[in-house]
Amino acid sequence: MSRYRGPRLKKIYRLGALPGLTSKRTKSGSDFKIQLCSRKRSQYCIRLEEKQKLRFHYGLTERQLLKYVHIAVKIKGSTGQVLLQLLEMRLDNILFRLGMASTIPGARQLINHKHILVNGSIVDIPSYRCKPRDIITTKDKERSKAMIQNYLASSPHIYVPNHLTLDSLKYKGFVNQIIDRKCIDLKINELLIIEYYSRKT
């Protein structure tokens, strides 16, 4: 299944707040989830919904998400927590978390167009897995810096989680450590996602 490219607000109305997918708000001015009260949702439907929320927030294809689940299962620790950490340490998500892009799709575009450097080298793979002590910068070109400057100016009070540090004057970000689960602000039950895939495989 390919990456979703349809109306983004439609997914917010259906699944709830997805800050990585779009910075737009619902018409009411606050993100909310439409509750289908007329029918009772099955356990499968609830698990599927949680999986879709994760997938759309991080901008993954079904194949990509399944690959991350398989990797998480093999790593020691809570599989759900490891899955979220793997996704959070992707380069496109790191840029979004630093405020250097307004959405994850926007961050992906910057990376694909070779505006982003990791430890001084151009990285054009959005799924690149960042590690502690990595340094994220922009190319030393006016166009690259201007785009990042616009993103940072549009969200001056963005919350940068503890595992990252932003030097906005130098358009530079630092990865301090692997993110802690409590710093992941996406409202999601990762255990339901693991259950969903355990019943599918």
Structure, described:
This protein folds into 2 domains: 8-87 and 186-200, Ribosomal protein S4/S9, N-terminal domain (Ribosomal Protein S4 Delta 41, Chain A, domain 1); 90-177, Roll (Structural Genomics Hypothetical 15.5 Kd Protein In mrcA-pckA Intergenic Region, Chain A). It is 44% helix and 8% strand. The chain has 8 helices and 5 strands. The protein has a 5-stranded antiparallel β-sheet. α5 (91-98) packs across α6 (104-112). It is globular. Mean pLDDT is 83; it is low at 28-38.
Helix content: 40-55%
Helix count, per DSSP?
A: 8
Strand order of the largest sheet: 2-1-3-5-4
What is the succession of H and E elements? HHHHHHEEEHEEH
What is the CATH topology descriptor of the largest domain? Ribosomal Protein S4 Delta 41, Chain A, domain 1
- What best-fitting shape do the alpha-carbon axes yield? globular
For this structure, what is the CATH class of the largest domain?
Mainly Alpha
CA-atom Rg in angstroms? 17 Å
Task: State the separation between the terminal residues, measured CA to CA.
Answer: 17 Å
| Sheet of most strands | 5 strands, antiparallel
CATH architecture annotation name of the largest domain: Orthogonal Bundle
Classified in CATH, the superfamily of the largest domain is Ribosomal protein S4/S9, N-terminal domain
Q: What is the compact description of this entry?
A:
This protein has 8 helices and 5 strands, in the order ααααααβββαββα. It is an alpha+beta fold. It has 2 domains: 8-87 and 186-200, Ribosomal Protein S4 Delta 41, Chain A, domain 1, CATH 1.10.1050; 90-177, Structural Genomics Hypothetical 15.5 Kd Protein In mrcA-pckA Intergenic Region, Chain A, CATH 3.10.290.10.
